[in-house]
Design brief:
Largest sheet: 4 strands, parallel
Strand content: 5-15%
Helix content: 40-55%
Number of strands: 6
Shape: elongated
CATH class of the largest domain: Alpha Beta
Structural class: alpha/beta
Number of domains: 3
CATH architecture of the largest domain: 3-Layer(aba) Sandwich
Number of helices: 14
């Protein structure tokens, strides 16, 4: 307890079903007036429309915990910062620092995000937007196309997917080569994994490379129910032929082959030039020959090169391009 409230010799917590009050006994003579009663906030009573608000969904998609907490406290005045701290298993000072903007608002620690989602009783759609696996039976089904198996591995003949009705189909191409940027690829893998989880894209990829890294990251960190095996496609043509969008991160000769095949099939290619390798080479090619990126507005193409955060910004550009593409059915 804060010293401003006086020294505390004992704290008694009692929940009375008929009044749902929290009783806190302060030091001194036991008097009725010395007992403070506070109604306990029930996060299960938060209406679904709160989680459907545009500003709330934007904070979820960006994992901006500070903004989420501010919106939550503004909407539900009966929930105090202390109660929010108890619900999400944080110190009261942590909540205060987030709300006041002293602490970095964006959070990437998956365990922290899970505590927040569980404590606030987020519905599955909100959890997915937060980059977490659903917990209810009514949540989106995330499965692999292969048979169930206790580990993520390589296979043949079919693509690994995170499947949902009306979702886009993307191919994730690329690899770590001598002329690629390992740090940028590390960040891109994490952000692409969260994007695939939250938007429920169907994913094609080869048996090695960035694509399998993304799917392995999803299996290891998000642990979606039923997703236990990622099967890579053998053959460069097989990786790109059924996709609508081809995401390129790093890469060497094999990735360049996939880019050439994608161009011949009029696929929509989205490179991360900061990752180096084939992605950077294609970006330079497309800068000189607009036909290679005729489907993309100049401002979005330029934004790919000026990403301040090579992971988060790249993921947001991909999401925007796919969401606003007329060929992708809406959910």
């Amino acid at each position: 307890m804060d010293s401003a409230h006086g020294a505390i010799s004992s704290i008694t917590v009692a929940l009375r079903p008929e009044t749902a009050t929290l009783l806190v006994e302060a030091i001194g003579e036991p008097k009725a007036n010395d007992v403070t009663r506070r109604r306990i906030f029930d996060p299960g009573a938060v209406p679904i429309r709160f989680w459907q608000r545009d500003d709330v969904q934007a904070s979820l998609a960006h994992r901006d915990v500070a903004q989420l907490f501010r919106l939550f406290l503004d909407e539900f005045s009966e929930c105090t910062q202390t109660q929010l701290a108890l619900l999400t298993q944080h110190d009261r000072s942590d909540i205060s620092n987030w709300v006041r903007g002293i602490r970095q608002g964006r959070v990437s620690d998956i365990e922290v995000l899970i505590r927040i989602a569980d404590g606030l009783h987020m519905p599955d759609q909100a959890r997915a937007l937060f980059g977490l696996a659903p917990v209810g039976a009514d949540g989106p089904e995330l499965v692999s196309t292969g048979p169930r198996h206790p580990e993520v591995g390589h296979g043949t003949g079919r693509s690994a997917t995170v499947r949902a009705h009306g979702s886009a189909h993307v191919a994730i191409c690329g690899s770590r080569a001598p002329d690629t940027e390992a740090g940028v690829i590390d960040v891109a893998v994490r952000c692409l994994a969260r994007l695939v989880m939250s938007r429920e894209y169907k994913v094609s990829h080869g048996p090695v490379g960035v694509g399998i890294e993304v799917m392995t990251y999803i299996a290891d960190r998000y642990r979606p129910p039923g997703f236990t095996l990622a099967l890579g496609l053998f053959g460069h043509r097989a990786v790109v032929q059924d996709s609508e969008f081809v995401i390129v991160v790093g890469g060497a000769v094999g990735t360049q082959t996939e880019i050439d095949l994608a161009l011949s099939m009029n696929k929509k290619i989205i490179p991360l030039p900061g990752s180096g390798g084939a992605a950077r080479r294609f970006y330079r090619q497309a800068a000189e020959d607009r036909r290679a990126r005729s489907w993309m507005a100049d401002e979005h193409f330029a934004a790919l090169h000026t990403c301040h955060d090579p992971g988060e910004d790249f993921a947001r550009i991909i999401e925007h391009l796919i969401d606003n593409d007329p060929g992708v059915p809406s959910d």
